[in-house]
Amino acid sequence: MQFTELTNVSPEIIRATQAMGFTDMTEIQEKAIPLMLAGHDMIAKAPTGTGKTVAFGIPILSKVDPASLKPQAVILSPTRELAQQIAQDLQNLAQFLPDIKIVCVYGGAGMDKQQRQLKAGCQIVVATPGRLMDHYRHHAIDVSDVKTVVLDEADEMLNMGFYKDVKYIIDLMKHRESLSMFSATISREVLDIGWLYQHNAAEVSVQPVEDSSPKIAQYKLLTTGRDKLADAAQIIIDEGYKRVMIFCNTKYNTGMLANQLARLNFNVDCLHGDLSQAERNRIMTRFKAGEIDVLVATDVAARGIDVSDVDAVINYDVPEENEHYTHRIGRTGRAGKQGTAITFVSPSEFRGLNNLMRDIKVEIKRETLPSPQDIVEMKRLKIKEEMQEIVENESYDGYKEFAEELLAEYTPDVALGALLRLAFRSELDQNNYPEIRSFSVDRKGTARLFLAVGKRDGYTARKLVDMLKFKCGLRDKYINDVQISDNFSFVSVPFRDAEEVVRKLNRLNRGRRPMAEIARDGENGAQEAPVRKPRRTKTEDYQAAGQTYAPAPKKPTRNVKPATPVPATPTAYAPAPAHDETVHAEPSHDQTAYDPTSSPRRKLKTKPQPHPDIPDFSKMSNEGFDWSAFMKFDEGTAWGRDENGKGKGKATKSVRKPPKKTVTAAQRVAAKGKKRK
Which helix (H) or strand (E) holds 315? Predict the structure, then answer.
């Protein structure tokens, strides 16, 4: 059905659709426009990019009264970007209706300017719920004459926390005649709003989600966290994408990825919720104009971006919500063009992607990065297509004379080969592209690991399983298909744990070659060990540095005293020689040869010498002992006493103090009671 067949629509609106390049209506437009023109409430389930804005825009413009400057229709949007996009589309539809005024109000912009526009008068208001309530509280908008209310992307708006705000806004519009909700999915909150405020609502459903993107090729790429950046850059370069959107789950990843791509000379910018509205508008304008090739964004940009020529969408992180995936990939494959959606899957995200595929009932094909041969082949095909286009549709007469001169000097193959080398440099050389790794992951969700240990290292199947249990924290049931060879082994572990297992095992083998790697896919599904480059010798290292390697001289060997040979036969018994009673003289020592200052000598411990005035009682006997001498010492002449027998110093007596008596609290209370008595 064409727009010209609509009888209840003004010619100015039909003329505007033709100016916008619309001739045939989409399915949602064919079903929704007649119902809204008739004034019915409606719940429309339609995927992104099917023309929902035109579906409710034409009936709204057809029913408003240009003579009245009070708002007659209110369109609610969950995001600023989507509100701006809706307002712009309505302006295009009303380009031949100069008396119709459309005002867009949203958060992040100045209130004063929006208030002046509302007070100046308008018929249609496009708004986000929060900012519309702000203007109502400031008495800047009158909604008493609103007849039509539209909730665009109703599921997202209600899930974002605007449920109470939407109910409050609808309650304000006492004289509304119709309430229409457009959504990609019908959530519980959408049904609640329909049950509360709609009457005999018509249900429209076109193209379910699983069939909504027939022109979007969906792929998943198995990768790791450290390889995501290189994989994204390689996909953009090798596939020749001119306009790409990359989605991340967090603002931090968005900014970090944009900076990393900028260092790789990509024309890139990022879009997230912390940016001001002016900055977001500037970035979107540049992206639509082609000044930005790669736009890294959070899910805030998944809705409201209407760019018809986005070549590919890359999900840098697996979306946290199923609806986010639908809206992300809906940014490509618009306006009937072919689009590509690639989702990066790391081991920790494998389970989440499986749940996503199960919930939305879509099969995402597994994809691998192109090999160097594939890259060169694609470039060759592209060159052939461009040459054919020039031969068929363009003129190249000015180059024929120069071509004849070259053919006169060189053979055709040499001349053409040299020209290709000059034009494309090293783009057609396979050696300039690194070998692309691919993961070995089966349908059960397990990854095949290569371990650089085998039987020669003393490992058995049991020892290998025990190492994975105790060092990596895996359970027995998750360790399967153990295959041990002499020098290496293979084992299957859950894909979600593969990256962590490899990291822990390589940490155990620190300082040497990696102990574990994710195995590559072999032919016919067989597993093979990763290809390793031979280790360079020291001679090659020195040659690479422009030096000459000369091995160090060998250390001289020590003269080892040969061992006494053991006689082959035991010797005959011989008695010991007779003892020599001759007294041998002790060898004389040269005392003058010793210099005490030459080297320190260890001090010998000497016994303390007795006091000269104290006799040595140990050598005395009772017989003939002079007791007078003993008594003399006892009188004190040599024992610290004077001639009178008194001590020279003051004698001190140690007096032990009695212990302090402890008194308990109960005893103190009892004593006080006795005193009172």
Answer: strand 312-315
Gap between the Cα atoms of 9 and 23, Å rounded: 15
Query: Exposed, middle or buried, 528 (CB in 10 Å: 0-12/13-18/19+)?
Result: middle
Alpha helices in 264-411 (DSSP H): 277-288, 322-329, 350-360, 372-393, 400-409
Range(s) within the chain of domains with CATH label 3.40.50.300:
3-207, 212-369
| pLDDT digits 0-9 by tens, 465-524 | 888 888 888 888 888 888 888 888 888 888 777 878 887 887 776 656 677 887 765 433
| C-alpha span between 257 and 316 (Å, rounded) | 9
Q: Which part of the chain is CATH 3.30.70.330?
A: 446-527
Alpha helices in 264-304 (DSSP H): 277-288
Would you tell me which CATH number, out of the four given (3.30.420.340, 3.90.550.10, 3.30.420.40, 3.40.50.300), belongs to the domain 3-207? 3.40.50.300
Q: Assess contact for 127 and 104: CB atoms under 8 A.
A: yes
Q: Please, are residues 45 and 32 in contact by the beta-carbon 8 Å criterion?
A: no
Report whether 640 contacts 648 (CB < 8 A).
yes
The CA distances from residue 75 to 145, 507, 667, in Å, are 14, 58, 86
Through-space distance between the first and last CA atoms of the chain, rounded to whole angstroms: 115
E strands, 519-567, in order? 520-521, 527-528
Q: Which CATH architecture has domain 212-369?
A: 3-Layer(aba) Sandwich (3.40)
Q: Which two tokens stand for residue 504?
A: 């822990």
**pTM of this prediction exceeds 0.85:** no
Q: What is the CA radius of gyration of the chain?
A: 48
Mention every residue, 6+ apart, whose C-beta is less than 8 A from residue 483: 489, 490, 491
Residue % of the chain over a pLDDT of 90: 10
Residues of the chain with pLDDT under 50: 209-214, 435-440, 443, 522-532, 632-639, 649-652
Helices (H), 552-607: none
Assigned token pair, 242: 């001119």
Cβ atoms 345, 325 nearer than 8 A: no
Neighbours of 136 (CB within 10 A): 15
Distance CA 121, CA 143 (A): 12
What is the CATH number that goes with domain 446-527?
Answer: 3.30.70.330
Number of residues that make up the chain:
677
- With residue 254 as reference, give the H or E element that holds it: helix 251-263
How many helices (H) and strands (E) in the chain? 22, 20
Distances (CA, A) of 234 to 143, 238, 261, 362, 540: 53, 6, 11, 26, 32
Chain segment 39-97, per-residue pLDDT in tens: 889 998 887 777 888 999 999 999 999 888 899 999 999 888 888 889 989 999 998 98
